[in-house]
């Protein structure tokens, strides 16, 4: 089959949209401009790619007038939660111009000076923009633009905004991604309009002030030059407020950067440091020690990986009470949600280490790939975010290997006396790449197969009702594809090309095309391979059918459709123990189908082929029985066991024979030592239980065989994380399947959820557990909500359900309570009836929020009496939830249909049937 170029792939996307029109139309997209000529029965596509510069012009920017440098002064009024400022922008005129646009949103502009002359012609009618007109075309190359402004501190999580914590304590910080710098100061708020920055912040003396660069100087504000400049704004800012107790903090010059990467924070912090890295906490500085240790190693790792020094003079990691995303990769000043950065061994699960190491590593990877080199348009952010998601486990895996080789970098922080909780302990005691497969590769494929994920590049988004939004699944897909490309090129070549890309485009911007041109060394065939994955939704299944490898499309509930093909790199392992890895492992490119005899020099037993060795590919694998792969499941490597059980679990949806095979694999988990592998089996068994409700004794038998001989361990002693994670999963299965186990109250917090379940089942003390819920951290709250829904006392269960209409559970946690309540096989019918009977009241209580939509989705996907539920819903106004109801009922019907087929073939799926 011939390769399809990007225009053919785009045409396929267009054909799939089935546009109903009888006239020629012209569409202007973020990165594409094209005409569609309607011909009888078809469309003709004329595609023209728009450069980032042309796109910026279409947004209103005059690219003949660009910023070179910003001198920004901001004064905070913490008493009234306002700020004022002046920004002086050094402009470069490429040609004579008398008009240009600058961005300013929710700012009160008092005056604008151009070359010290007041500008009177300013049009602010376009929301978020200032259109400036000069008296005559400016004929010199360089000029200064000064803008005086003030505003209220933002009440959202964007711009320059306020967070509170503790007893009336305040912290002021910025979040400028993607186009929100304009809410804090007038600027050219587009990623290609890079410039240098000098930032000066005036704030109360009691506050610490942090920005992208180290502090250059600090002095009192009263009678300072900064005070005179601010109060020279034509009288507007005079007597802004008392300046006696304020200080001026001036920071060193920041290298050329995009406005969304500028940042500053004002508050009272505690700091822990090592070298150029600091972690800032609102509470005990030692809470940031784990993040600091990870950051020190990871920074050194990326310096070596990119073959380039860290671009700035310092790197701060700052915990903020409210941040729009868990991490914001500002250059030299990465901000995190406070709880996402801090780790307390006494109160947090050990799983917190995974998220901290991942977020810290992502933020640091962005410092080169995303900050030093920046996107040209926001729709390309999937690449930069995906790279960071891929690079995080790369760094963590290197740290793990370093630990195992006894070369772990030890940190002797001057801030910690006789440290420390982490001294001489492994920072990474899990398998990062196994985790990557579970959290990224699997995540994206399950979303993509169910037709809920747009392509990474979608020129035809203009035809669709919804705007392109970057979702976590897009980031996961990008990360998984980059890993596949790395394996395709080999890790050493991939690293060399990434380093070249970062050096070639340092301090500037790069398009997707420019990235792939460097990555594949201008090899058009390989570039088109990448585009085949980027421009399409869905992914293939690679199936070994006798002596052939066959590719099919997996799409929408895993039905197989022979409509599209991908040029797919497939890593194959021959299961021949007599040969070396090098002899057994082969990388091929599969376009449609091929004979195995064409792939290998020597004859190969077709029953001894393992597809997607190492889990580096983005496709499902299937094997025609009989296959040695399933028979030797326990003897496969851990990563290949994970690949096989992931694929088998996914393919079991609506497929009785696949489910039979998956149950056999679950029965082979009795001695499984990997949490990631066991967790897939656990999730599958719990899902099957929910489908079968009361007819699932065969599931109980598998669970009992899996856990009964593995519960004799110390519940208090701390072990390596991977061991404790596995044990906590086994313990949860035991507790939820009536297997008696005694857990002490002072158990390790990894086992706390199971202890709470047993204790609540025994005592049913709702008041006690609500008290624990109110005073606990988020992860403990989740354990409490889980435990309360696991009661075996129906009267207690009903009282727990009544909490949905109370104020004792936070609205954002009620979806968690619903999900857990629906997993109670004995009482779930009661909850569904409760929900539909009280729908209007619950909706009024929680509001039409994403939380309530999530609750409604959970309920409608687990229905047994669909007709009865629909009839009851007719009594309630639910128009805005009709689409959610329709999709949920579709899922429920599929589950019921599967259950019917399953029961009809019960003899085929008993675990003893081998």
From TrEMBL:
Residues 66-225 form the Aminopeptidase N-like N-terminal domain. Binds 1 zinc ion per subunit. Residues 290-528 form the Peptidase M1 membrane alanine aminopeptidase domain. Zn(2+) binds at residue 366. GO terms for molecular function: metalloaminopeptidase activity; peptide binding; zinc ion binding. Its EC number is 3.4.11.-. Its cofactor is Zn(2+). The keyword Metal-binding applies. Residues 609-865 form the ERAP1-like C-terminal domain. Keywords: Aminopeptidase, Hydrolase, Metal-binding, Metalloprotease, Protease, Zinc. One of its GO terms (biological process) is proteolysis. InterPro entries: Aminopeptidase_N-like_N (IPR045357), Aminopeptidase_N-like_N_sf (IPR042097), ERAP1-like_C_dom (IPR024571), M1_APN-typ (IPR034016), Peptidase_M1 (IPR001930), Peptidase_M1_aminopeptidases (IPR050344), Peptidase_M1_dom (IPR014782), Peptidase_M4/M1_CTD_sf (IPR027268). GO terms for cellular component: cytoplasm; extracellular space; membrane. Belongs to the peptidase M1 family. This is Aminopeptidase. It comes from Pseudoloma neurophilia.
